[in-house]
Write a sequence for this structure.
């Protein structure tokens, strides 16, 4: 944590990194930094040795070779700088993912010059993507990043760099696009079945304990039961009058209530179970409502309703992820 805080402080002071920037972000001269790479430092040391040897032995060809290579090194610095100069960056679109999956950030880069931009690298969090920009063209670059917690994941500190053409010089720019990815909670691996009839009826909802999908067992017959659900084979063998019960829930509404969960579950465990239930209810085609502390989502069904519920679960408790 101390290292991350120190890096953020250095970013704000050295690279003037602050809140997310308004698009498009244009790389001007003052935003591009240039330093030698490890190979560049070794190259400079070799040139110094060659220069000292040429001076010591008064080698004319040694001087020529030293200054020729030195000029090539300086020229590579200019080319690396120009490889980034004038680029324009805009945030693209990100799709929500579940915690533990790979988030994909998309950035749109525009090259206004009539020269291609080779050997570029975009780095975000722990992800990186290499690419090149054709002349006078616009491309969308995808950068994959791992997710470790629910909530909004901002793209944060983004680095665009190049070591073209000789690998001796690293030119880079640091910026913060206005872009984030919503990370849904990780669903419980083996959740219990969707809430039964008692939980739904307490809140005026019909539960999904009597649908028409998979056979779940037998129960005592009620006068309101359909004759086609009566266990006639059991009755024919001299057994009591029973009704077949099914586990489908297509005919009723389900209430997913935070307050009805077992008390031994902590906050994240409750969110994980509700997430699994939301997914299960959507797959079963069930209309469901979601009740969280401070927020209630009414009965609905479909992908939009599921995403709204997952978003509410992801943002529960004001969960956020600090900028990288």
């Amino acid at each position: 944590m101390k290292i991350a805080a120190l890096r953020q402080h250095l970013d704000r002071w050295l690279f003037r990194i602050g809140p997310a920037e308004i698009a498009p972000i244009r790389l001007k001269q003052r935003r591009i930094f240039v330093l030698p790479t490890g190979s560049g430092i070794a190259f400079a040391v070799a040139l110094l040795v060659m220069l000292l040897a040429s001076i010591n032995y008064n080698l004319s060809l040694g001087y020529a070779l030293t200054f020729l290579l030195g000029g090539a090194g300086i020229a590579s610095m200019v080319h690396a700088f120009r490889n980034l100069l004038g680029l324009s960056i805009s945030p693209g679109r990100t799709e929500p993912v579940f915690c533990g999956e790979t988030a994909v950030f998309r950035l749109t880069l525009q090259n206004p010059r009539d020269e291609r931009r080779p050997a570029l690298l975009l780095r975000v969090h722990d992800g990186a993507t290499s690419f090149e920009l054709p002349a006078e063209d616009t491309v969308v670059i995808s950068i994959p990043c791992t997710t470790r917690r629910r909530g909004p994941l901002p793209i944060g500190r983004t680095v665009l760099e190049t070591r073209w053409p000789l690998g001796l010089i690293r030119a880079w720019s640091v910026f913060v696009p206005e872009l984030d990815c919503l990370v849904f909670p990780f669903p419980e691996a083996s959740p219990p079945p969707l809430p039964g009839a008692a939980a739904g009826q307490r809140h005026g909802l019909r539960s999904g304990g009597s649908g028409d999908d998979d056979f779940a067992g037998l129960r005592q017959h009620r006068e309101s039961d359909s004759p086609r659900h009566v266990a006639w084979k059991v009755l024919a063998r001299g057994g009591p009058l029973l009704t077949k019960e099914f586990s489908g829930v297509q005919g009723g509404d389900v209430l997913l209530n935070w307050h009805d969960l077992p008390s031994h579950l902590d906050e994240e465990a409750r969110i994980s179970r509700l997430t699994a239930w939301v997914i299960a209810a959507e797959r079963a085609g069930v209309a469901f409502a979601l009740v969280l502390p401070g927020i209630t989502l009414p009965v609905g069904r479909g992908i939009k309703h599921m995403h709204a519920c997952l978003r509410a679960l992801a943002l529960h408790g004001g969960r956020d992820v600090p900028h990288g």
About this structure: The chain has three domains: 16-183, 185-213+248-324, 215-247. Residues 60-84 form the longest helix (25 residues).
